[in-house]
Specification:
This protein is mostly helical. The protein has 3 domains: 2-48, no CATH class; 60-197, Alpha Horseshoe (Serine Threonine Protein Phosphatase 5, Tetratricopeptide repeat), CATH 1.25.40.10; 239-344, no CATH class. It contains 18 helices and 6 strands. It has helices at residues 9-14, 16-20, 25-36, 58-76, 80-93, 98-110, 114-127, 132-144, 149-162, 167-179, 183-196, 201-213, 217-229, 236-255, 258-273, 294-297, 319-329, 341-344, and strands at 2-6, 44-48, 51-55, 277-281, 289-292, 302-306. The chain has a 3-stranded antiparallel beta sheet, covered by helices on one side. A 3-stranded mixed beta sheet has the order 4-6-5. A hairpin with a 2-residue loop joins strand 2 (44-48) and strand 3 (51-55). It starts with a strand and ends with a helix.
Length: 347
């Protein structure tokens, strides 16, 4: 398919990004490539006098899209051994496709074949130097596998120069700054990433760690809750968030005003669920405190049961702290069904 546009004010009004960048031919080409890209298939754009020609290889799209979609599905399910041969076959058919190399590089990275991963990600950039996913992946590899933070930052910063609102690249810059001990700078990047995408689990977990280090335990617990809400129980990050929730809960018990923490916790639970909370003294429960979510008990109100303190070393006002620990301990047991999702939020 070939599309021809006359270069005039109407064309720039259709592609305002190019207009915002001064109506240069380079910015127009970039805007057209971005718009007419279909999945991993990029168009060929050429300026010819007063016209611009966009060539879309529809036959390749038609013949390869189904196989590419299969690759993506296998990767999402972690079936890399099944995705890999299909992807290698696609590269032989179409060796100019940057995304094919990028995904193969990511698979090889998961398989711990780091040198081959880097080679394929570099191939991705040779065909499309603005492939932000490849740039970010290379940054991750150099940071995590090679402990080469300066090189990693170069890739992340290049990704941001292409796409300033790339929340993943911004988050990863924050992670590397944290690794270097530059906590204040790291937090700024995490907050920026959070503003761009408040549901990205890696950023939520990072903010939980930041607030834990700042001794802001209530906020840290809330971010661990959000992390669990936004990642699958099979994801290693889910378990990391649970472990951090327990760590923060234990710290909160000794360093946080118990009643203040309880009030914040119960208020957030009530707001999030739209249900009131009953507080019941109960000497028959097996733990110092127990949280009963309305959804799990088919009630219209949540219930917090607690034991009356027996010794002077455990004043009655400290039962909310014990409850905070109880809520955290239920973190990884929620989410097994739709009805249990609120348990994830109850930290």
């Amino acid at each position: 398919m070939i599309i021809i546009h006359k270069i005039n004010d109407l064309l720039f009004s259709l592609f305002p990004k190019a207009k915002e960048q001064g109506k240069s031919m380079e910015s127009l080409k970039e805007a057209l490539i971005e718009y007419y890209t279909f999945g991993p298939f990029r168009p060929k754009v050429e300026v010819e006098g007063d016209f611009v020609k966009i060539e879309i290889d529809t036959s390749t799209i038609t013949s390869q899209k189904a196989e590419f979609d299969t690759v993506v599905k296998h990767c999402e399910q972690g079936n890399f051994s099944q995705a890999k041969p299909i992807l290698e076959k696609l590269i032989k058919k179409n060796p100019t496709n940057s995304e094919y190399y990028r995904i193969l590089g990511q698979i090889l990275s998961e398989e711990k074949n780091i040198d081959a991963a880097v080679n394929n990600l570099h191939n991705a950039l040779r065909w499309n130097s603005k492939n932000t996913h490849a740039l970010t992946m290379l940054g991750n590899i150099f940071a995590r596998n090679m402990s080469d933070i300066p090189t990693a930052m170069t890739y992340f910063e290049q990704a941001l120069s292409v796409k300033p609102d790339d929340h993943i690249a911004i988050n990863n810059i924050g992670a590397n700054l944290m690794q270097l001990g530059r906590m204040k700078e790291a937090e700024k990047y995490f907050q920026k990433a959070y503003a761009l995408n408040p549901n990205y689990a890696q950023t939520l977990y990072a903010l939980a760690m930041v607030h834990n280090l700042k001794n802001d335990y209530v906020t840290a617990l809330d971010f661990t809750r959000q992390t669990g809400k936004n990642c699958r129980p099979s994801d290693p990050l889910y378990n990391h968030a649970f472990e951090l929730a327990n760590e923060v809960s234990n710290k909160a018990i000794t360093k946080t005003d118990s009643m203040e923490m309880f009030n914040e916790f119960s208020q957030k639970l009530a707001v999030a669920s739209g249900k009131n909370i009953d507080l019941i003294e109960d000497e028959n429960i097996p733990t110092p405190a127990k949280l009963e979510l309305a959804e799990n008990y088919k009630r219209d109100r949540h219930t917090i049961r607690y034991k009356k303190a027996k010794t002077a070393s455990q004043p009655a006002s400290d039962f909310p702290s014990l409850n905070a620990r109880t809520g955290a301990s239920r973190f990884d047991r929620a989410g097994a069904s739709e009805g249990n999702q609120l348990s994830i939020r109850s930290i």
